[in-house]
Amino acid sequence: MSRTYVEIAGRSLPLSNLEKDLYPSYGFTKAAILEYYRRIAPFILPHLQGRALTLKRYPGGVEKEFFFEKRCPAHRPAWVSTAEVVHHNGEPMMMCVVSDLETLLWAGNLAALELHVPLSRAGSPQTPDSLVFDLDPGDGAGIPECTRVALILRDLLFQMGLASYVKTSGQKGLHVLVPLNSKDTTFDDTKTFSRAVAGIMERHYPDLVTSKMAKNERIGKVFINWSQNDASKTMICVYSLRAREKPFVSFPLEWKELEDLDGQGDRESLQVVHSEAVRRAEAKGDLFREVLVKEQKLPHL
Fold first, then answer.
1. Strand 248-249 and strand 92-97: pairing?
2. pTM
3. Residue 125 neighbours by CB distance under 10 Å
4. What is the DSSP secondary structure assignment for residue 106, as one 8-state letter?
């Protein structure tokens, strides 16, 4: 095993197998992955801060087997922050918290290509600070349908007095987030609200939207996955890489981008690769910054 040591903020970080190609059909080594996370760090770190991290690790690369790691590895450096989280089965678990660049690169060195986080912070695990509508196209649907649903959803939420923000999932769908940042909000509130909104969308656009989880209900439609609003669930962090044939990123978009694509988008039109993600973030800043600070209250439906 080849190993290199780097110094970051006075801490020594061992990096191994930097030459290993983890995206073999694209040609993207572990060194390139770490360089991506180094450059995107100013944008992703605020969205990881204070959240219990689930690592999705691909030690053999994206074409090989992966595994989820919720428990923070015992071999972690002493300076890696952790938080004890009690899961739905009552079991307490020590989980990693990424608070700085060195921890982010340490996770990347574990081939944790994907970084998954809950909708709440570790210090208040039952209090979501945002609500998500996970738009998942079924067979026969794709980016054009997801784009249309996202825009309709944005307008519906706006009529309720709620601002929303959209990002790519890094795969085939979109995530629409509604920031809340209220200590009084519970996951029961967000799940009830998101399920009700998904039902409203389904009733008004039955040929386009389904709120039902059954696979056969999704053909040619977009499934609004309201069940992600749960303390036990995680979602891909904004700016995280995805383990696909190319190093696509879950990336925030401006609504105008979706308006311009409405009715004419193709399956690749909203896929943002690592280099474009860095370029756009450095040029425009964090389009998801309001998700962290904007305070909103859910209306009663």
1. unpaired
2. 0.95
3. 19
4. H
Distance CA 44, CA 46 (A): 6
Average pLDDT over residues 41-49: 98
- The Cα 22–Cα 37 span in angstroms is 15
Q: At a CB cut-off of 8 Å and minimum separation 6, what does 81 contact?
A: 96, 97, 98, 99, 103
CA distance 249 to 240: 6
Say how far apart CA 51 and CA 110 lie, in whole Å. Answer: 19
pLDDT at 53 over 80: yes
The single-letter DSSP state of residue 102 is H
Taking every pair of Cα atoms in the chain, the longest distance, rounded to a whole number of angstroms, is 58
DSSP run (H or E) holding 133 = strand 130-137
The owner of tokens 């990881």 is 48
The rounded mean pLDDT for the chain is 94
Chain CA centroid to CA 46, Å: 13
Task: State the helix-helix crossing angle for 30-48 and 101-109, rounded to 10 degrees.
Answer: 130
- Whether 82 and 96 have beta carbons less than 8 Å apart is answered as yes
